[in-house]
Amino acid sequence: MALPRVLALVLAGGAGGRLELLTEQRAKPAVPFAGVYRLIDFPLSNCQHSYIGDVWVSVQYNPTSLSQHLANGQPWDLDHMDGGLLTLPPYQGSERGGWVSGTADSLWRYAPLVRQFDPDALVVVSSDAVYKLDYREVADEHLESGAEVTMVTTEVAEDDAPRYGIVEVGDGGRVTDYAYKPEQPRTTTATNEVFVFSPGPTLDRLDALSAEVGDEGLADLGSHLLPAQTRDGLARAHPLRGYWRDVGTVPAYWQAHQEFRSAEPPLDLDDPRWPVHTRGGLHSAARVLRGAEVEDSLVSGGTRVAGQVSGSVLSPGVVVEAGATVVDSVLLPGVRVRAGATVTRAVLDDGVEVGERAAVGGDGEITLVGRRATVEAGAQVKAGARLPDPDED
Hints:
Layout: E1 6-11, E2 32-33, E3 37-38, H1 41-49, E4 54-58, H2 63-70, E5 84-88, H3 103-109, H4 111-117, E6 121-126, E7 129-131, H5 135-145, E8 149-155, E9 165-169, E10 175-180, E11 189-197, H6 199-213, H7 225-231, E12 235-239, E13 244-246, H8 250-260, E14 287-288, E15 293-295, E16 298-299, E17 304-305, E18 308-310, E19 313-314, E20 319-320, E21 325-327, E22 330-331, E23 336-337, E24 342-344, E25 346-348, E26 353-354, E27 359-361, E28 367-369, E29 374-375, E30 380-381, E31 386-387
Parallel strand pairs: 1-4, 1-6, 4-5, 8-12, 14-17, 15-18, 16-19, 17-20, 18-21, 19-22, 20-23, 21-24, 22-25, 23-26, 24-27, 25-28, 26-29, 27-30, 28-31
Antiparallel strand pairs: 2-3, 6-11, 7-13, 8-11, 9-10
């Protein structure tokens, strides 16, 4: 018996404004994570291990950074002669062309393509979270349930719940109530931006909603579509029991790195049964020089460490000179910390240079330095500061 035909749509076109300087010149899904990975590697690797061979990626903001990483999809076994990886940019030429203004709006614009592909199930995922999940297992359960949508859910902290779509779940996993980013959430069970839809009924409903809301627009999936499916009793929940982290804000991004540089990270990214794949392998081995001290840290290939590093993540090409100290920080590719400088509780973007005896960050709020910025010798960048890219207007 043939497997159900499953299409995955990765929504990778959001502006990512909550990541501030990190997304000014790159797409949010292209933001580096845990040294050698990019955020989009997680949903793409999930697709690969779920035996989903048709993956469409919707792009919009700063698409070049993402397109360079995706290329032909080879690391995720998506470089097929027929099917595989398809990148969907904004377009003109039909009534559905134009700039995408939300996740539901994106799905509506690509509806004719989805109908033409004619999948049995449509998996729609975001690309700003870190997790592992078998999408096909969720799709199989969805097809057996008769629901119009299956929402993958996770438990979140009470003070964080207003950032998400919040659900109440009844008997048999049926979603009995859905609220999109409510001010006063009634539960802490959140949708984690993984949905499995029955394509025909869902796209028909989107067409009807589009006509109904008019100029207001369809906006996000949680604005009109998911509430309507829930009201009609056609939504069910699939709880994700394992690790899941939304890293769409600077504090969350920093905190996730702290979790992954520990002795027992929440996910084994090299698990032979479910490795996370990426486009890489372009760097030599890391070099830890005589006199260096490195503890409780992730050190990527191509780095050179002669100073002291603790509780930090060093991406490829990072240099920490003798006498420099890096503590509880995330250094993205090509960062150089000169002799005598200190970096504490900070995220430094690509190519940042911290001059000799300079000090970046400290206790308190996370400090963020934009790509290619230079912190002059002896300068001090206080904790919580935002130092932008020098090329930005």
